[in-house]
Structure formats: structure tokens, C-alpha cells
Amino acid sequence: MKPLKKCFLVPVSNEESGQATALFSALPPIILPSGPFEKILQNGKAYSYGVMPLTKKMLLVMIVVILLIAAARLTRRPSPPIAEKPRVELEEQELALLSQLVYAEAEGEPYEGQVAVAAVVLNRVDHPLFPDTIAGVIYEPHAFTVVANGRLYKQPDERARAAARAAVDGWDPSNGALYFYNPALARSSWLFSRPKIKTIGKHVFAK
């Protein structure tokens, strides 16, 4: 019998550890084989040790667990910073309008990107060059194409509402951006000239 020479260590959270435990609990009990143990020589002395055979079924379960953990990490929403108090107090109607804009401008974008779009609106509200209300920023002439083409008035989903709420609560993944655009669709040379901060999904966020 040959010892297993390689192993893989995967750091997991408590939640992921619970998922792995539930999967492994479905396996039959593992019984170490009886009989003479193999010996190795370490520092000039012989030590006995038992080797647990790695069955195909166990290997398959391990692979499934690792894939499940990887998939969970890819789909997990980024954790927003904890704010002591909301960034701004909005009426339900204002929050609903902000959610509509997020859904219209960033449907299909990563959750972090949706929060960043909402944050851009709030950044403009706080900036002296823009209107000081949510409605004023969104309905400012030529500010958002979704107002002109009617997409703004589509019913937002829960993800867009959550993103708007996260921005209101103080999360700004855009790092203070005042503009965002999709470089594959935008045509404004002035917009392209704005200092870029970061890219999230298909959107570039700029000052």
C-alpha cells in the first residue's frame, strides 16, 4: 500500500464547511484496513502509520465539494462596508425612482456595478454642478438616455432595489464617480475624456 503523497487544502467559510460536512455525511463509514502498518524512517527512528485508501467515490465527492465552493464564491455578492448611518434619507418614491434607473441602466450588470450606478446618482446630488435631488439628477436634460427611450419606466427587480438601497446606505463602489458609460455604446468624445476611475462589468466610471 502506498501513502497518498499529494493533498489539496481549500480555505472555506463556516457556511461552506457546513455544506461540505453535509455531503460527506452521506458517505458510508470509512474503516481503516487491518493488518501490518507500513513504516517510515524519520530522524533515524521508525514510526508506524496507517494509510486510508482514497476511493473513487470519495474523490468524486471531494471534486463536487470544491466545484460547489468555487461556484458559490463566484456568485456571492460583494459585502458592502458597514455604515453607521445611511448616506441619505430618501422617501419611498425617491428610492423607487433610483431603483428604476439602476434597472434601466444596469440590468444584467454585476451587483457591484448596479450599486455603483446608484452611487453615481447620489454623488451628483451632493455635487454643486448637478441638481440636488434624485429626481432632478435623473430627469436633467440629456443626462440619461433611458429617460428618453422609456426604459426608465420599466418595473425594477429585487436585485436593482437592493443595489439602490445599498448605495443609499453608504456603499460607493464607483469611488466617487460622477459619470458612467458603456464604451461600446457611448459616442461622446467629451465623456471619453473624463478621468477614468475604474471599470465594473461593461461600465466605465469616471470623474
Keywords:
207 residues, alpha+beta, Arc Repressor Mutant, subunit A, 2 domains, 3-stranded antiparallel β-sheet, 8 helices
Provide structural commentary.
About 14% of the residues have low confidence. Helix content is 42%, strand content 11%. The chain has 8 helices and 5 strands, in the order αββααααααβαββ. Strands 3-5-4 form a 3-stranded antiparallel β-sheet, with helices on one face. Strands 1-2 form a two-stranded antiparallel ribbon. With 207 residues, it is α+β, with helices and mostly antiparallel strands.
Reconstruct the topology from this structure.
Layout (H helix, E strand, L loop, with lengths): L13 H11 L13 E5 L2 E5 L6 H20 L16 H15 L4 H16 L7 H5 L6 H5 L8 H11 L10 E3 L7 H4 L3 E5 L2 E4 L1
Antiparallel strand pairs: 1-2, 3-5, 4-5
Order of helices and strands: HEEHHHHHHEHEE
Our count of helices gives: 8
Instruction: Report the CATH topology name of the largest domain.
Output: Arc Repressor Mutant, subunit A
Q: Uncertain runs with pLDDT below 50, 5 residues or more?
A: 4-9, 30-52
CATH architecture call of the largest domain? Orthogonal Bundle
Give the structural class: alpha+beta
The CATH C-level class name of the largest domain: Mainly Alpha
How is the largest sheet built, in terms of strand order? 3-5-4
Helix content: 40-55%
Distance between the termini: 65 Å
Estimate the global geometry from the Cα principal axes: elongated
Radius of gyration: 27 Å
Give the strand content.
5-15%
Number of domains: 2
Described by strand count, sense and barrel closure, the largest sheet is: 3 strands, antiparallel
Tally of DSSP β-strands: 5
Mean pLDDT across every amino acid position: 80
User: CATH homologous superfamily of the largest domain, by name?
Assistant: Cell wall hydrolase SleB, domain 1
